[in-house]
Amino acid sequence: MKRKVIIMIFITITIVLCGLYLHYENTKLQVSNYKIVNNNIPVDFNNYKIVQISDFHNNQSNTLTNDLIKEIEKQKPNIIVLTGDFIDSSKTNVEVAMNFIKKINTVAPIYYVSGNHEASVKSYTKIKEQLAENKVVILENKKEELKINESSINLIGIDDPRMAHESFISDSEIVKVELDNTKYNGDKYNILLSHRPELFDTYVEKKIDLILTGHAHGGQIRIPFIGGIVAPNQGFFPKYTSGVIEKNKTTMVVSRGIGNSIIPLRINNRPELVVITLYNK
Questions:
Q1: Which tens digits make up the pLDDT trace of 161-206?
Q2: What's the rounded Cα separation, in Å, for the pair 80 and 137?
Q3: Burial, 156: exposed, middle or buried (Cβ in 10 Å; 0-12, 13-18, 19+)?
Q4: Helix, strand or coil for residue 114?
Q5: CATH code reported for the domain at 2-279
């Protein structure tokens, strides 16, 4: 009898500890700081700070959202960028998403691009209207020129390929057309906001300097020395799930994102706020 009690106590403690660990992994914000150095960045943009929020999925954890707001305020960024899946198509709560925007739209200008979840909801037009009402600049296959003194860089934003609803055309080809439509100047330093990291080779081909992406949720479950287990459009053991990837003269930053969607839990993969600081060589 005593042995059974000990076993039950051990099982109970294990369950409680696992629950606490999962709660921590899914609600404790991690801040990742990346220093991007490039001699095409104007000297006036030294120490220019960009805060990136990806895959918010209308997160309903008050603890996580409050920590996120405090950290954004603490960082004092020059701009805030939202790289898709701001809402969730299966559990859409626009009010939660907009309340978050209202609490950060006085910190810095906000720029937004769509993700695949926005492409899957009928209310997207109304969502865009509410974003615009809350001072969010929506980049739909266009560019904005960011200026400091006489210097400038391009901020380019493209729609998620699913917005095109062209199932017989590859995502890569859709993105190439979208980028061409922005008429960005290749001689300037170009930052691209795009939801999809798996299209990295396309961005390299188009000679984009810096791409900020999300979508992969960090691979959902991360194994030390291996990385993420699964990601949308990349399948098992995906190549692009987190951090900085470089090829030729192109750099891509992949955010692990904030919220969850189809898979409700993260393991060894805390919600992430990305902070990027630009420097001229």
A1: 999 888 789 999 999 999 999 999 888 999 999 999 999 999 999 9
A2: 10
A3: buried
A4: coil
A5: 3.60.21.10
CA distance 86 to 99: 12
Domain chopping of the chain, boundaries: 2-279
Q: Which residue has the tokens 């629950």?
A: 19
Q: Which two tokens stand for residue 245?
A: 């990837």
119 contact partners, CB below 8 Å, separation of at least 6: 159, 160, 162, 163, 165
Contacts by residues 118-127 (CB-CB < 8 Å, ≥ 24 positions apart): 118/84, 118/85, 118/86, 118/87, 118/89, 118/160, 118/163, 119/159, 119/160, 119/162, 119/163, 119/165, 120/89, 120/162, 121/87, 121/89, 121/92, 123/92, 123/94, 126/94, 127/86, 127/87, 127/94, 127/97
The tens digit of pLDDT for each residue in 78-104 reads 999 999 999 999 999 999 999 999 999
Q: What is the DSSP letter of 218?
A: G
